[in-house]
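Record pair follows.
FIRST:
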Amino acid sequence: MTNETRIEPQPKLVWPFLAWNFGWTWGFMLLAIILKNLWPENPPILYLALEGLLTSLSMFGPVIASLIVLKIKGFKAICSFIFSSKKGTWLYLLLFSGSLAVTFALASGGKLVDGALLSFIGSFIYLMTLAGGMEEPGWRGFLQPALEKKFSMLIASSITGLAWACWHIPLWFYDRFYDRSQDLFSVFIIFSILLSFWLAALYKKTQSVLACNIFHALSNTLIPTFVGIAQANNQLDFSQVNPFFYFGGVILLTLYSIYLWYRTDREEKALPSKEEV
């Protein structure tokens, strides 16, 4: 199946997408949680490896669900879905990435977590290929554009962010590799919705799943890189960051994202339709 014949994101496919997505992810995470509780202390390496495999597989729920509901089959079609983009994609990816990096740097006073630079590249590659970023074919490649056909950008992004946050719930019950015990889920929901605004605008402007993949992975990599940012993002603890720069950067990026989405939407509607060409 080629890229031209795949099904476009439609609101009627949202529930099948969510069913496949949550079923896949929560199913594998449930198995990992069961294994963790069966052998909570000092399990052997092979046992940990099996848990790690299950948690890694769980992260592919969004991309698996999007490929199924959009009926994308074959290596060429999958590559087209993920790697296609519009002109100017890298400029906007740099703009969003640079803005977030500058916000975190200013808020933290430029202080880096010990050893963060040494692990930066490895963490970024992992988050782009096996976690975080690889969720984007589902959330931005399918769910966001499908909801935008029925709701405004603000409502579609909020729904996507809420679904995205709830998709992570098993991590609060599994702390072998992911310790979320100190994180506030209510704050996680807010940050997920904010990030959904940013990614919605980036995808609207670029039509690039890959650009969203990179920005998502970079965001997750930058958070533990600068001192105090993880605590601010996850626990509303601003004892180590400057709230003025933190909230200022977040608000400006959010307002720009809303502006960029609606400006792009107006430009798209001003273009002649295929029937008029």
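SECOND:
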Amino acid sequence: MTGVNCIVPTGDWTGEGAVWHASERALYWVDIQRRLIHRYDTESTATHTWFFDHPPVAIALTERPDTLLVAIGGGLILWQPVNDARADFVDLEDNWPAARLNDGRADPAGNFWVGSMFNNVGPEGEALPIED
């Protein structure tokens, strides 16, 4: 086989941060600008999408198989996809919405690392200029 085959044409504007959930046999990823999280189930080949009020930028597994850690806007939330339950966990970015979290990942020891940047995503997903 040669080339690339798109199996989930979600039309993401900024799709990134993929996380494999082995026990669910599913792949999660974010679309920052459209404020979405997608889940692709490899068994059923179904894709489910959730909308968030602020841009989700990174996802991590937790010790609870039904709960994910999501970096979103200026903080972290705990999220249960099965019932879409969301709980604020910690605010990290004091300058939100002028600045937002961006790119994060859990390390092998289970620590979650996340960076921040000037916010370049507007309320409707439009690109914003980055200021000094």
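COMMENT: The CA atoms of residues 53 and 89 lie 16 Å apart.
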